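pinned: reference chain
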Amino acid sequence: MTMKKGRVVCVAFTVILVAIIGLIAELNFDGSSVKASSKYKYGSITVPAKNGTICGAPNYIAYEKGFFKKNGIKANLVAKPTNIGDLEAGFSSGKYDALNGDFQYLPAIQNGAQILAAGGLHQGCIQVLVPKNSNIHSVKDLKGKTIGTPGQGSTGQYVATIALQHAKIDPKTGVTWKTYDYDLLTKAAEKGEVDAIANVDPYAYQAVKQSHFRVIADNNNSSNSTAMAKMGMKKSGSCCYLYLSQKLVKENPKKAAAIVKSYKEAAKWIDAHPAETTNILLDKKYVAKTKFVNKKNVTTLIKSYHFSLKQGSGKEDLKYYAEQLKKAGFLKKNTNVNKLVKSAYYTK
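pinned: its structure tokens
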């Protein structure tokens, strides 16, 4: 090989080598480019979101409509554990970063769950119901009866408990509680295994529309009904909340603020686009479509929830529920409600 040809080969090899080094430098270990990852200023989060509920719409819309991405977050939506203990462990270990949940997490927070409420996301989705031919016509008629719920410590039980307390019925001794899966509660009441049920949508909504159950208490008091308020159903009160990992808030407050912003924008978008939200939930299979869980009915439910991230009033709502749960014995007798809510609430 001549000296001239050798120089040409050497230069060509150097160019190729530089190109390869440049390509490697642009890649992360997983093969994604730094340029692509730079879109996510705050990195990634894991949200236990997938449980098939309509209530979880803010998770899906923040992801599908790009609110997470716009605010510098790469979100991973994973299955939501049914056991609250698994959720607590996930937040304590740093496995989970945010959660769309309801006020049933207050006792867990008091017992050390590493999460903070960051604002109410929507109004009620839980009702206390009786079969159409039942001789029960008010909460007072539940004394001595059996109530079916999705589980001990479920929000369904909490809502029924609040209503019972306002009717001066002891929720521990004045009624009997039975547990069934969400989709079996209506049948249990129709078979006479329970006298009433406290269930979440879409199951509660389906019981009313298809099986003609009657509502005796509805925690969606967006109409500001005085009658429902007398049952303890707070006027325009938040039912579900955005929760954040305490670990994340402490270690990366800017990232926490970006998450809150993403959910706030998603909730606002949902409220303005209920039909399009429904299409996304059903078409993307976040919510399983059935003969009843269809676009018309899901859109109706989404409209009724009045999605909006309420940070100030959400804190007041949480305080109200804490007071009710203390009275019912779900929180410790010596609970300082103001102190609990202050320690359990995220403020930017």
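why pinned: The chain has three domains: 3-35, 39-120+239-344, 126-230. DSSP finds 16 helices and ten strands in the chain.
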